[in-house]
Every structure is written in C-alpha cells, then in structure tokens.
Amino acid sequence: MTQPLLERAVADALGEPIASIRRLGFGLTTLNPLDESDDLQLVLDCPFCGRAVPYPGRARDGSLALAECLRCDVYFDFAEVEVYATATSSELAA
After folding, report:
1. What are the tens digits of pLDDT across the range 3-44?
2. What residues form DSSP beta bridges with 45?
3. Cβ contacts of residue 49 below 8 Å, gap of 6+?
4. 26, 6 in Cβ contact below 8 A?
5. What backbone phi and psi angles, to 5 degrees, belong to 87?
6. pTM of this structure
7. CB 1 within 8 A of CB 17
8. What backbone torsions phi and psi does residue 24 show, to the nearest 5 degrees?
9. How far apart, in whole angstroms, are the C-alpha atoms of residue 86 and residue 78?
10. By the 8 A CB rule, do 52 and 90 touch?
11. Bridge partner residues of 53 (DSSP)
C-alpha cells in the first residue's frame, strides 16, 4: 500500500477530507508490532491476583471450561470478552 492509498482509505472510512488525514499524521510504517518469532496465546486475567492465565478452551458440551490460576490455586468462571491474545510467555506455565 502506498501513502496516498492509505490516506484515501482512512479519509473514506472516517468521512474526513484527505487534508485532515495528512494533518493528523496517518502514515505507513515498516515496523511489525509483533515479532514474527513470537507465538500468540489466548489468555485471561485471574480475578484474584490479576496475572494472565491460559485460556482453557471449551468443554465437550461447548460451554466454557473453568480457567485455572496455579498461583492462587483456584478455578474460576469467565466471560468470552475477557479473553485476549498475547505473546507466549514462560510465566504462564508457572
């Protein structure tokens, strides 16, 4: 994508003139926010200690399985909206 194509796409999406988009500083970047060597993992935060714990997936019946925090030694319910992706960390296993 080129800079003019990006500016046009943002202007069309926001309903703003291209001059406003240029003034706001939208631009192309060559930086990749996630290093390709990083693997992503689904996690959620423990409601007791706040640490990220692995997403347990679904039970056989399709319902959400209970999440487990090893640090707090507790299983807990969660909502799907609490699940997010993060780079894999060895801390999640501990």
Report:
1. 888 888 888 888 888 888 888 887 776 655 555 556 789 999
2. 52
3. 69, 71, 72
4. yes
5. -65, 140
6. 0.54
7. no
8. -75, -15
9. 17
10. no
11. 44
| Ordered strands of the 84-87 beta sheet | 52-54, 40-45, 84-87
Residue 30: Cβ-neighbour burial (10 angstroms; 0-12, 13-18, 19+) = exposed
Which amino acid, 87?
A
Token duo for residue 27: 């631009």
Contact of 55 with 83, CB cutoff 8 Å = yes
Asked whether the beta carbons of 91 and 49 are under 8 A apart, the reply is no
Average pLDDT, the chain: 83
DSSP 12: H
CA distance 94 to 90: 7
Q: Domain ranges for the chain, please list them.
A: 1-31, 40-89
Return the residue matching tokens 């200690």: 49
SS3 sequence, 68-79? EECCCCEEECCC
